[in-house]
Amino acid sequence: MSSKIMSNHSGGSSAHPPAGTLGELPADDAAASESAPGGSTAGPAAARSAAGMSVFNLAMLTVVAVASLRSLPAMAGYGLSSIVLYLIPAVLFMVPTALVAAELATGWKGGVFIWVREAFGERWGFVAIWLQWVQNVVWYPTQIAFIAVSLSYVVGGGSLASNGVYVAGVIIVLYWVSTLITLAGGNLFAKVGSWSGIIGTLFPAALLIVLGAAWLISGTPSQAELTTSAILPPWTGLASIVLIVSNVLAYAGMEVNAVHANDLDDPGRGYPRTVLVSAVMILAVFVLPTLAIAVAVPKASLGVVDGINLAFQTFFDHWHLAWGTPVISLLIALGAFASVVTWIAGPSKGLLAAARTGLLPPFLQRRNSAGVQRSILLLQGVIVTVLALLFVVIPNGNTAFVTLIDMAAALYLIMYMMLFAAAIRLRATRPQVRRTYRTPAMGLVAGVGFVACAVAFVLSFVRPSGFTGLSTVGYALVVGLVIVVLGVPPLIFYALRRPGWQLEPDHAVGDAILVNPPDARDAAGDSPARSPKRHLRVVPRRHGTHPVGRAS
Description:
Shape: globular
Number of strands: 0
Structural class: mainly alpha
């Protein structure tokens, strides 16, 4: 994104488009100079050299985007049984997602839009990338609310944590600051995401583990029962386990940075390693700090939003280190802020890449001089601002928080069901496409992931026990209304699309979307290494059809 990219509206030209988007797919040189995004003739190698993303950098981006301390307090209330509640969605959702995304990302470029489109057609590919984008719009207020509460422990000892006006105000301000960072372009999002994530997410998580161990070693009584009988979660009805849905969302995002897989020197080998490293780290960040919170903070005192800060306050006050609470709260806020910046940069870029082939009106396709998706970022800013007001309208901040989480989870789970279904279909209909990594027992792995998502989707309409501010019916209606309002627009846009909406030719066709094109494999002796730049003819597509996959 370091290159200047002018909108086709102004007739400007520039260097290559943002790495990791459909716009970087190669085209015939002559045609590309006139019709490729920004008039680029640079191929994937140039894009990769400009991006310069390593396996570690991409893994850290994934950890920062996925792992968050935000979900720990809700699970800490379950004590030792939180291990089971983390492992269930990890085994049934995170592992299938990681394995399936690894195969798809090493077979096809372009992320979830290409994967679903190749399986089910352009309409559903567009729905998938839209859902990946819009669930983030709903997720932003929850993450920034977590930041707001952490900041309240920095300046006011947590006194503002339950003030809805304060929380809403911080959400609005910090979201727009994140947007300005993204609009600046360049690799700033990667730098902020990696290092702030280490400082603000991994370090506090490690510190919680150390403090929890020290708490037990010193002989201080544990607030959670540490016996084998406490490992199994208590059953008090369906609502008692609904918070497991938030755990599914906590693991969401294993596939989101697959859009950057081709920025690696060898995505076929590098991306699966990225998934493995990030998955292990994410699970560790969730389980061990949760247990540390459980041993120190009484269950009755835990809040869904401020529980993590209360845990540090308990630890530091116990050892007469009260000054540590505002310091660590600031670091936690920084880590959460880093994840917001990271996620703004990814899905919205993928949506723009799909949009510029004629799937969104031209006014939503506009980019700034740095090539960043200005109109889309401004649109999601408006939505975030409206959703932030839920913290003012719903008197119970915990209920507002969980409502937003369930809204985001439901939207994202629809996309994941499409992703798993696409992986199964592509294995059957496109067996000739070489995947450097192949998921073992694809039907079983993707099938488990699909069923887990379907069950979690249903549970997202059930209000968790212990939350007030909305009735059981009202809770389901609010979640359902937001799903319809935010999930239906891509179908409407697709039905209303016009030829004039296509501002760029679609280069994401044929071998251009394959990580391992057939003739490149022959030339390389079936080597999994990256293929050299290929010159492909630009294929104009008739409106409403796609040359690859089923017509829509």
